[in-house]
Amino acid sequence: MVNALFENGRQGIADDSIQLSTDTIKVALLDLGTADTAVKAITGATNATPIVITATAHGFTNGDLVFIDGVGGNLAANGLWKIANQAANTFELTNPVSGVNAVGSAAYTSGGYAVCYGPSASSDNFDDFDGCLVGTAQALASKTFTAGVFDAADVTFTAVTGASVEAYIFYKDTGTPSTSRIIAICTGKQIVTADAALAAGTTLVVEPVVAGIPNGTVLTFSSGQTATVNAVVNAGDRAITVLSTTISSGARALAPMTGFGLPVSPNGGNIAITFDNGANKIFKL
Fold first, then answer.
1. For residues 186-209, average pLDDT
2. What does pTM read for this prediction?
3. Which of 89, 96, 100 shows the shortest CA–CA distance to 44?
4. Helices (H) then strands (E): counts for the chain
């Protein structure tokens, strides 16, 4: 899914440079429409195989994971990818599991942003994201880390102003952004993966979804194919009812998570984050 650990966050937990129970862990709201080292504006997405993204002076590296959202027209570009054949202003999108190239679904129209998840230095510390900060970062309280599951007390950001909030990020706060290791990010989106091919049918078998998906959602897959959800999807479901269509096995699509609340446009009021009460809490290793 795209509510995920950063690659360097995963490494920090593994080598004990991040101690979730004792370190000061903060959560910050992000406006992903504002560029920083790890967040770049997209100005093109080819309707081709593979999809080639244009993001001027992106600085990302082959092998980096990258989350893309907000691309208009070529909706197949939106999702979680591994970068290949990067150049100064472009990179190709490949499936991070299979390595298969992403297939365009239509001509690019406008918009979009790319968020680097690492492991390159484009996405290692909070200074790569702090230019996108909305409001004031908050320290987590009542932290627990049990059987690989991290949780904490819910958080409220007070009197928040700014253009928009598309994500929130967790990081180890050292007091210096350039040494404050990033850990995880939540975007309110999830990846839906087809476990089996669907040939002109209405039941799409998928890997268990981590959260609900609203009825009527149009899923645009990495194969360039689309499916319209035709019944409410609940967390844990392995079969999605769709309007009759054809989907390739292993294809992946970006989907909203029901009730997540992002994106949101601040109006000077409070923004409360209620962490998931399910099995995965904030995140699970």
1. 96
2. 0.95
3. 89
4. 1, 23
